[in-house]
Each structure stands twice: as C-alpha cells, then as structure tokens.
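Structure tokens please, single chain.
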Amino acid sequence: MEKNLKKKILAALMAALTCIATMILKLPTPTMGYIHIGDGMTLLCGFLLGPAAGALAAGIGSMFADIFSGYAAFAPATFLIKALTAGIAGLLFRLFKRRPKQPQPYQIFVIASGLIGETVMVTGYFLYETAIAAFAAGRLTPAAGAASAAAGVPFNLVQGLAGILISLLLFPILSKVPDIKEQLLY
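Here you go.
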C-alpha cells in the first residue's frame, strides 16, 4: 500500500481513537468541563504522525468529541487548541529524536514534548474561557473573565499530566506496529 495512503488511514484512525478516548471516560469538573483521557491520544497523534498530520487528527477527533458530548460551543477552540498541542508536541518529539548526540530513551522525548504540548492546551483553554467569561459578563476585558477561567486551570493540568502518562504507556506498544513504525523517523 502506498505510504501516503497508509498515513491518511492511520490519521483517520487516530482521530477516531482520540474522539472515543475523550468521550469514553469523562469526569465532570465544577467548571462545567470534564477531565478525560483523550489527551493521551492527542499527544500520540503528534508523536506517531508528525506535526502536520498529528495536528489535524488530534484537532478533528477532539472537536468531534466536543460536538458529540454537548460542548459544541467549545468545538472550534478545541480543534485549534488540540491541533496546536499535538502539532507542537509532535514537532518537538521529532526534533529531539534527530539530535546527533547519544541516543536517549524515548521516555525523555515523550515527557519533554508532552509537557510543552500540554502547556499549550492549558494556556489555550485559559485564554478561550477568559474570553467567553468576559463576553458573558458584558465586558470585553481580559480581567473580567480571568478569575473565572483560572478555576479550570488545575483540572486542565490534571488532564494534561494524565495525557502524558497515557502516551508514555502506549507509545512503546504502538511504535512496534509495523505500519506505525514505518511512520516514525528512527
């Protein structure tokens, strides 16, 4: 099968798995959101598919999870935030792996790339929720919504750390699948 076609099929599969992982276990938070395990798949999209395809797969899968779960107001922001999360994590993962120094265990790359990617997620949702809260308050100033949005940060941090742990567990398993291994730049 053509390598490009395999990558498209893998990207579609990863988008579907991201959607399912986001929806299958949802722990509601007091801020009207929910903690889920989909961030593990978001990071894996970037790690396994690379920054561009990984960003699209993660963004599409996460966006559909919001739509199907009744969070349609978050869907456009989720698409952008999760795409950036996967894209940046995937780019950094690939850059770390290409460094000419002695080979390092994959865990270092997953953790470092995941921390930076998940920081993008936490920041992205904070900014979006600040804008939504400011708009709802009738004052389009960042300070009007920042206090309200700050309440969601700890929950997003927990979700991000869970995503890193999940990707740490699943990466070595998935990277042994021949069609996935072919996508990785070893």
